[in-house]
Amino acid sequence: MAFDNGFGISVQWGTSNYCSVKNLDELFNDLEMKGNSKGFRNAWESNTAEIAVFKGGVGKCDIRMNVVDNDQVIGWLATDDVAKVIEIVSKYKTETTIKKKIKELNI
Q1: Distance from C-alpha of 83 to C-alpha of 60, rounded to nearest angstrom
Q2: What is the percentage of the chain residues whose pLDDT exceeds 70?
Q3: Using a CB cutoff of 8 Å and minimum separation of 24, what contacts does 57-66 make?
Q4: Which of 43, 20, 13 is nearest to 30 (CA)?
Q5: Which of 32, 60, 89, 103 has its CA 20 to 30 A from that of 68?
Q6: Which residues pair with 54 in a beta bridge?
Q7: pLDDT tens for residues 45-89?
Q8: Are 17 and 73 in contact, with CB atoms under 8 Å apart?
Q9: Closest CA to 63 of 6, 24, 11
């Protein structure tokens, strides 16, 4: 998702992302992961997600930023935390301010 301020955010979840279903594919075979017919959680639903923040020129956000502790990805974020980061990334105009505000969330 790219914003008018030149920054963007990626929000992802799934069996390869830092989220609550990260290792689900290691636990169940493909047939069981396709739905909840046997009571297993669907591999593409998650209570948490990972995010990455991007910067770039007008209309393109293609440079991933280090957001916390020299890391480009923050994982296992709850829905409300993802929403807070989206608000920060869309609202502020400088990389320094965005990093500071995200750090202040203590996530």
Answers
A1: 21
A2: 78
A3: 57/6, 58/6, 59/2, 60/2, 61/2, 61/3, 61/6, 61/7, 61/8, 65/95, 65/98, 65/99, 66/99
A4: 43
A5: 60
A6: 8, 64
A7: 888 999 999 997 555 667 889 888 888 999 999 999 999 999 999
A8: no
A9: 6
